[in-house]
Amino acid sequence: MSKSKMILAVLASLLLTTLAGTAYADYALNFPEPVAPLTQQMYDLHMLTTKIATIIMVIVIGIVAFVLIKFRKSKGYEADQNFHKSTFGTWSWTLVPIIVLGIDLTIAGSATDALQQVEDYSQKADVTVKVIGSQWKWTYEYMDDDIRIVSNMLPKEEAGDNYLRAVDNPLVLPTGKRIRFLHTASDVLHAWWVPQIVYKKDSIPGYINETWTNIQKEGTYRGQCAEICGTGHAFMPIVVEAVSPEKYEAWKAEKLMVAEAAAAEASSDKTWTKDELYARGEGLYNTNCSGCHQVNGTGMPGVFPGLVGSKIATGDIDAHINIVLNGKAGTAMAAWAAQLNDLELAAVITYERNAWGNNTGDAVQPADLKSARK
Amino acid sequence: MNAVIHETDHHHDHKPTGYKRWLYSTNHKDIGTMYLVFALVMLFIGGAMAMLIRAELYMPGLQIVNPDLYNNLVTDHALIMIFGMVMPAAAGMANWMIPMMIGAPDMALPRMNNMSFWLLPAAAILLLSSLLVQFIPGTGVPVNTGWTIYPPLSVQVGMGMDLLIFSVHLLGISSIMASINIVTTILNMRAPGMTMMKMPLFVWSWFFTGLLLIIVMPVLAGGVTMLLFDRHFGTSFFDAAGGGDPILFQHLFWFFGHPEVYVLLLPSIGVLGLVIPTFSRKPLFGYKPLVYFMGFLFALGLVVWAHHQYTVGMSLAVTTYFMIGTILISIPIGLMIFNFIFTMWRGSITFETPMLFAIAIILMFSFAGVTGVMLAVVPADLQYHDTYFVVAHFHYALIPGAVFGLYAGVFYWLPKWTGHMYDEKLGKIFFWWTTLSFNLTFFPQHFSGLAGMPRRIVDYNIQYIEFNQVSSIGAFAFGLSHLLFLYIIIQTVRGGKEAGAKPWEGAQIGTPGLEWSLPSPPPFHSYTTPPEVK
User: Fold this and answer.
1) Chain A residues in contact with B452 (beta carbon < 8 A)
2) pLDDT reported for residue A272
């Protein structure tokens, strides 16, 4: 499998453009299958230009090959010194612009059509999702429901073959509905892109961009951040689960119920034991923090600080709470105050202070976070 | 004043010796040589960075460099190849050849010529420091932005970005001065009888290149200065929270960045305009249309910059305008390809190394042209944008379009510069080696891009492994071939068969060809009395 793919890749490289015209679709030599009307239109446009490009290249290569075979000195061919003064030589310069303009207008005509579809925001959307890029994860807010999903990359151990293309919490969307995405960012530029269902628009801090789609087929669709956004640019994948509208409604109801229960739990006055917090914290740490600080807490030397025996994780509790809540300006450390609730934050901090030999024995309570937030 | 001394001495080939010959040089040939040597050094530094990038991408996972160092290498590879390699090499050729071609004794502004060159090593040191400063603790995040240095990311970066901004300032001053010098020389220093429409195409290409640089370089300098102010002096030109606009920087950058592409391409097109007639032994086909359409390309190139930003969310009307403008670029480019092919038509072709490069350029640059039209189509570009498809496209445009054109120029003029013929057999081996390995490197990248691999990622999913391995193997071969290039150059400089004044049989066909009437190597001062142009 892999070997044949490799051979194909070599062949593709050597045969230059001729292959590009014929070997579409299989073996990832082309775009993945589009599953929305707009991406289908873009795919068709891509195929049209690819075909025109292939034809042009065949013609150019053909003429050049003919010239090189026919008009060589070694065959005794003598140069025609007056060729450029002939009628052809005098007037041919009008030929190319006319032909090329014709091709250009053909392409531009069909492109303008698709472009108007892309920019058509007149129809009402059934689902509106605000997509927020931040270093280095995606947050999805369903504007009509009180649902918020934070989507982090899955570590290699869990993602397997989909590593760098798999996340813990995918965006769930219904099929057959008009979906509107609002793109923005919290820190630097990002670009949200899932080629099969929706094209790119940049996420720009302080601005909102809009795209839309209508997914025709259930499935899991993957993509990656397309605009360079710093250290973790390669590590912020995108996954969309497209499900039937019924399943989507059920998922939404469950999501709302769980969120309500979690909120209630976090705001209760219960005092938690260290072990309870540690157990909750481990899972939360692995999904939210291990992208940078690593599962074993060692970080990445020179890029992300380790937490094993670190001053923050073993020193003053308030300082630890402060950096997790508010982030650290000028570094990649994000502010988590708005992303996790008090109980979750308390659990993560407790975990960090007791895992990997950081045996401080501290149990940070949700109440501590509540007071620190003030 | 020097001229007076020379005349009394009757010794036109007297040249200063020692370091002063180079440091204080006002001689267009010596400055040209220094530009070319500088470009060669930078080619190896930028190439070494490319080798590190491809070595990292050979396998998925993080093997050789960390993500920040990787992105810094990507940034500096681009800047060094553009500002350190292609532009100085083209400027070196302009310095060497333009005065000889138009019958001028030297450049119009020889002292400024000296300064434009000597700013370059300073700029290169700043640029390399911006890469190395990350190894000193406390200097902040490395330059992990890519060469486009888009804010807000470039505001997060540490000290490296300041060094880079100062380097860009110096590079800009250097290019503007060099361009003013070249344009002035072309307008004022032509020998009697050398009308504009008799100038070799290379001179015309540099005329437009110089004008482009004079127009766009100040915009880049302004843009990066605003960035510097945002970073340190509390302004918010590019910060939405302070009423600024991050996209404004992209417009400023690409107003420079797109014409910059033609700055890189045009001199090489000029070289083709000499090489192809020479080895086809017949005059350039359609000289006048080529000049006019070069002017058209120059004008059009200035007003299509935003096709690099289709995804930033511009209005339908603006996007449509930039799409159609961009697609129209295929007209001048198409005409150039057409005219070069028909220069060969009914010619008497031989296949020396410069000609082999020229033919390869026609084919591969056409290919870059058709993928360029694909990319210009906005709806499709919303899928291609920022993937390896784009990386493949612009390497096809810039390596054949600019770099191979310079190689063709080096092989074409080395006999003139040194007085020795290069080893034709080694030249041909170098041609086949680079051309094949270049295609092996970049052709697969079209497919990894279509399959969804974004640019500038240090690690990739295993589905892209085959394409990346082929690409890396090709890149190593491509890199290695340049050692042969270096060997050929050193060998030719040191000795070899006498070249004679006109080493190429067809060199003077269809052009005044003044440069070929001088001996090889030409004397230190080419002309003491204006040459005659028929």
Assistant:
1) 31-32, 195, 222-224
2) 83
Q: Give chain A's mean pLDDT.
A: 87
Q: Does domain A269-373 have CATH number 2.40.100.10?
A: no
Q: Which CATH superfamily is domain A127-258 in?
A: Cupredoxins -  blue copper proteins (2.60.40.420)
Which residues fall within 8 angstroms of residue A250, CB to CB, at 6 or more apart?
A: none
How confident is the model over A190-223, as pLDDT tens digits? 999 999 999 999 999 999 999 999 999 999 999 9
Q: Which helix (H) or strand (E) holds A139?
A: strand A137-142
Helices (H) and strands (E) in chain B, counts: 19, 0
pLDDT at B4: 43
Q: Does A17 touch chain B (CB under 8 A)?
A: yes
Instruction: Quick: pLDDT tens for B43-55.
Output: 999 999 999 999 9
Place of tokens 């970073």: B231
- DSSP E strands: which ranges in B225-344? none
Q: Name every chain A residue with its beta carbon within 8 A of the beta carbon of B320.
A: 112, 115
Residue A16 has pLDDT above 70, yes or no: no
Domain spans of chain A? Answer: 2-73+87-118, 127-258, 269-373
First to last CA, chain B: 31
- A253-262, B187-196, B284-293, B438-447: lowest mean pLDDT where? A253-262
Taking the C-alpha atoms of residue B392 and residue B384, their distance in angstroms, rounded to an integer, is 11
The alpha carbon dihedral of B314, B320, B323, B328 has a sign of negative
Helix (H, G, I), strand (E, B) or coil at B120: helix
Which residues of A, range 140-159, sit inside 8 Å of B by Cβ? Answer: none
Q: Where are the beta strands (DSSP E) in B250-308?
A: none
Provide the 10 A C-beta neighbour count for residue B442.
25
Element (DSSP H or E) covering residue A90: helix A87-91
Residue B512 CA, chain-centre distance (Å), reads: 26
Residue closest to B389 by CA, chosen among A233, A46, A5, A196: A46
Q: Select the residue of B71, B319, B383 nearest A195 (Cβ to Cβ).
A: B383
Give residue A76's identity as a one-letter amino acid code.
Answer: G
What is the ipTM score, two decimals? 0.91
* Domains of chain B: residue spans and CATH: 34-516 (1.20.210.10)
CA distance A172 to A197: 13
Residue B358 Cα distances to B76, B79, B90, B123, B353, angstroms: 28, 26, 16, 32, 9
B314 contacts chain A (CB < 8 A): no
pLDDT at residue B265, as a whole number: 96
CA distances from B260 to A80, A331, B70, B216, B217 (A): 37, 34, 25, 8, 9
